[in-house]
Predict the structure.
Amino acid sequence: MEMPTTEETLARLAEIPNLTVSMDTPLARYTRFGIGGPADLYAETETVEAFIAALAVARDTGVATVVIGGGTNLIVSDTGFRGLVLRYRADRLLTANGRVVAQSGAVLQDLVDFAIAQGLRGLETLAGIPGSVGAAVYGNAGAYGHSIAERVVRVQFYDGAEVRVFGNAECEFRYRESAFKRHKEWIVFSTQLQLEPADAGELRRIADDILKVRNAKFPVTMKCAGSIFKNLLRDDLAADVAEAVPDNVVREGKIPAAWFLEQVGAKGLVRGDIHVADYHANLIYNGGSGTAADLCAVIGDLKARVRERFGLELEEEVQYVG
Ligand SMILES: Cc1cc2nc3c(=O)[nH]c(=O)nc-3n(C[C@H](O)[C@H](O)[C@H](O)COP(=O)(O)OP(=O)(O)OC[C@H]3O[C@@H](n4cnc5c(N)ncnc54)[C@H](O)[C@@H]3O)c2cc1C
């Protein structure tokens, strides 16, 4: 049997109710880096049914799929993605009895603001983390010593065959890790979070203070992905490496990847229009005309330097597409 063409797959996707589909869609516009070639096919929807139907068409026609959220943690290759890029846009936020249910397409900051407005404590330290709720669960997003996992009660997801619900333990959350990250074909549709009553004004002040600090570090227009590399758990490091790190660098058992990167001269490094911030060694940004090739080359260079000097393998927090 001949493989269906992209046009044929497009025609089948176009028949799915509530699905918006396009062809040859530049992905740069869907990534905060502003980098990335075209997807053969791009589709988004606000319904679980349409999302699952689109996956079924892709499976039938042998087309590869990838799911994206807000694109704030993605490096998309310059040649784009040969297949179907899917985005789940449902963004409702509901609350009852101290619990909040958030659909995955909701913006994380909207969830934080919603919880604060309801006088519910537990998400305020996530203020300013860009992106969607679905990806925050996928990557167990966090900051200031807390992560979303602490509040997750249930996650509704699709495992490629059926819609299922996991409790917190089944999600296997770790630092920037979850079961969903290890099963790339799983799609998070919604999340239920347990929060506690608190004074809304006090929560707002905490969030606003964090936003002020974050906006100074990551200007809102900066084309970047936040931290490129994960921080390191001190307990995971070889004894001689751990000993080389000054005590005052360690925070909650973690050593910032930035410390290792600084030791190998990362700050201010430039390749093409890709820059390592001169004030933060784990922050790489696109000056405007940067490419994924240069970005990946800088990441590879930094990993090699740290490997050579410390015998240590830095691991990307960013996710690759294409
Ligand atoms: C300026 C800046 C600061 C940042 N600071 C922080 C920080 O302090 N802490 C932190 O944790 N992160 C931080 N990040 C990283 C980023 O905000 C998080 O990784 C965020 O969760 C990504 O959300 P997104 O919707 O943009 O996901 P995307 O970048 O679109 O996707 C990220 C990954 O999630 C997967 N995904 C997306 N939606 C779903 C879904 N519904 N189901 C299953 N998988 C899905 C994608 O396949 C992809 O692998 C920062 C990023 C920026 C740009």
